[in-house]
Design a protein that fits this description.
Blueprint: H1 7-11, H2 15-20, H3 22-27, H4 29-35, E1 38-41, H5 45-63, E2 67-70, H6 76-84, E3 92-96, H7 97-105, H8 119-124, E4 130-131, E5 134-147, H9 161-165, E6 174-177, H10 187-193, H11 206-216, E7 220-224, H12 227-235, E8 241-245, H13 246-254, E9 259-274, H14 282-292, H15 295-304, H16 320-323, H17 330-333, E10 337-338, H18 341-345, H19 354-365
Parallel strand pairs: 1-2, 1-3, 6-7, 6-8, 9-10
Antiparallel strand pairs: 3-9, 4-5, 5-8, 5-9
Helix pairs in contact: 5-15, 10-11
Length: 368
């Protein structure tokens, strides 16, 4: 894929971009109410194109329900505005975990009607992908990537975050994701490197995170801030070992860049299909989400763009070569670490959410 949608946008979608498209959304509201037409936010770029081909067009063909795809994302503030003003102009939206959990906690999302799902399909959907307020639309991950010229297959390689932190045993130029946004950062990696078991990461010990980061900080060539930046660094071979979005690394591998992914201790993240509370077409919106989370549809989507399905039954329909590129492949799941976005949104005794605590601490620490 030449232009993968930014993971940063998936997690922290721009409300300004949504407002720019808001006039068209509002204009279509009367039509949506009168005809049952669905208005679905499908992301932008290649992800949006893949959603349209794998979900929107075949859903229309099967049900006869017209769907207007909106190639954009939304934010918590925009959902809040729609719901509280009772002017809900979007029926289905793909939401990052942080936005979805926050919106659900505030009562801004409809409950998913799991009674309309076939048992076989429902059983195939991984547990964390099924929430009262949404069903996973795609799964991706943060992975370790190394340059094959520095770490060829016949020599020792770092296979854990403890190895990544071991600069004597595995010397080389390193990069890690910046923690400037709070919701994304090298937090889990730092704890894993310090010996915390994957099942004991949460609630995260913030002091321990930064004590671990103190050890690796002198050896980080650069803290990357977006997918394009890490992709360029890998392409130019500026670094030897790094963490990265798996999609960016897969793209470079397809282009012949000498890098390889280590999926042990990969950090899983995912988006949810959700329905804003008060949608004028809730019944049809439920049907769309059920359709989009079927194994055959998720398999079709995964073959258009390398995001993993939440319905693991899809792997029966995905060619093995493609399946091995996806974050939710059953062989990878056991050694991967699911992000706990609930913890990020929790508020401490001082009234500060954990995500803000991490961001503030990072901004102070990085200047030391």
């Amino acid at each position: 894929m030449s232009n993968l949608v930014s993971r940063r946008r998936l997690m922290q979608a721009s409300s300004a971009a949504f407002v720019m498209g808001g006039l068209n959304i509002v204009t279509g509201r009367a039509l949506a109410q009168s005809s049952g037409e669905l208005r679905v936010l499908v992301y932008g770029g290649d992800a949006g194109k893949a959603v349209i081909e794998a979900f929107v067009k075949p859903f229309q063909a099967e049900t006869g329900i017209k769907v207007t795809p909106i190639t954009d994302q939304t934010s918590l503030a925009q959902i809040q505005l729609m719901v509280t003003t009772k002017n809900v102009t979007v029926d289905v939206a793909g939401l990052g975990q942080a936005t979805a959990f926050s919106a659900a906690a505030k009562g801004y999302l409809e409950d998913i009607d799991y009674s309309i799902y076939k048992k076989g399909e429902l059983n195939g959907i991984v547990d964390f992908a099924k929430q009262p307020f949404g069903v996973a639309s795609m799964i991706y991950s943060y992975v370790m990537v190394y340059n094959l010229e520095k770490f060829p297959s016949d020599k020792p390689r770092p296979t854990s975050w403890a190895d990544f932190w071991d600069v004597k045993k595995f010397p080389g130029r390193r990069t890690l994701i910046s923690g400037q946004l709070g919701a994304e950062g090298p937090w889990e990696e730092a704890l894993l490197a310090d010996g915390v078991a994957a099942g004991a990461l949460y609630p995260m010990d913030v002091d321990r995170i930064f004590a671990s980061l103190d050890k690796i900080k002198p050896h980080i060539r650069k803290w990357w801030t977006n997918g394009s930046m890490i992709q360029q660094m890998m392409h130019d071979q500026e670094v030897d070992v790094m963490n990265s979005y798996d999609g960016r690394a897969n793209l470079l591998i397809e282009q012949g860049t000498p890098v390889e992914i280590n999926r042990k201790q990969a950090k899983l993240n995912w988006d949810y299909w959700a329905i804003p509370k008060g949608s004028p077409n809730t019944k049809n919106a439920q049907k769309f989400i059920e359709f989009a989370t079927r194994a055959d549809r998720q398999a079709a989507f995964a073959q258009l763009i390398p995001y993993g399905p939440g319905n693991l039954s899809a792997y029966k329909l995905i060619p093995e070569e493609r399946g091995r590129q996806l974050a939710s492949h059953p062989d990878y799941m056991a050694s991967s670490v699911p992000l706990n976005m609930r913890w990020y949104g929790q508020v401490g005794p001082d009234g500060v959410p954990n995500v803000d605590r991490l961001r503030e601490r990072w901004n102070e620490w990085i200047l030391l």
